[in-house]
Design a protein that fits this description.
single chain, TIM Barrel, 8 helices, about 35% helix, RibuloseP-bd_barrel, racemase and epimerase activity, acting on carbohydrates and derivatives, Ribulose-phosphate 3-epimerase
Length: about 210
């Protein structure tokens, strides 16, 4: 995957909510690139890139407030933005955030192609490898076909995977072409989270050398 870099994004959904500031600092100190957020803000506690995934029906309504709250990336679902994604992407960019689009397991990958190829394109595609909404689910390996299709079509695109990622599943995701890895339980639940972050990054880096 020449042209893209590995970005390991521990999911704050699996962190200790009573100690978010400390958890954010701990993950960055342990080597994480991004912190994956599910509509919550840590901006006053960290300078990290805040990778925000909005599982909402009206993402347009959240752009302004997410921008003001300090979100770095704003990822919306294609399933709720079929008719207004061009306006939504423009609004996200004008608010100073990086636009991304997510798709659920049942959504054909072809639905996001126009968003990557548009005049004002998204800059990341998030392939959900579980049904969105809660942590701890099992990784769906069949979703790697979507990742592979995206990587073959868009060699320099940031492709993120979210759901069930950890030491036992990272190699499949990395080999398919994913370079942005959201990991929740496997990082926060590990005795040595830093070792897991390093392992995830190493897998993406190794795959990038063989593609």
């Amino acid at each position: 995957m020449v042209g893209v870099s590995p970005k390991i994004a521990p999911s704050m959904l699996s962190s200790d909510f009573a100690n978010l500031a400390a958890e954010a600092k701990r993950m960055i100190d342990l080597g994480a690139n991004w912190l994956h957020m599910d509509i919550m803000s840590l901006r006053k506690h960290t300078n990290a890139y805040l990778d925000c995934h909005l599982m909402v029906t009206n993402p347009m309504d959240y752009v302004e407030q997410m921008g003001k709250a300090g979100a770095s990336g704003f990822t919306f679902h294609i399933e709720v933005a079929q008719d207004n994604w061009q306006e939504l992407v423009r609004k996200i960019k004008s608010a100073g955030m990086r636009p991304g689009v997510a798709l659920k397991p049942g959504t054909p990958v072809e639905q996001v192609f126009p968003l990557v190829e548009g005049a004002t394109p998204v800059e990341m595609v998030l392939v959900m490898t579980v049904e969105p909404g809660f942590g701890g689910q099992k990784f769906m390996p069949t979703m790697m076909d979507k990742v592979q299709a995206l990587r073959q079509k868009y060699p320099t695109l940031d492709i993120e995977v979210d759901g069930g990622l950890g030491p036992s599943t990272i190699d499949a995701a990395a080999a398919a072409g994913a370079n942005c890895i959201v990991a929740g339980s496997s990082v926060f639940g590990a005795p040595e989270p830093g070792n897991v972050i390093s392992l995830l990054r190493a897998s993406v880096e190794k795959a990038s050398l063989t593609t």
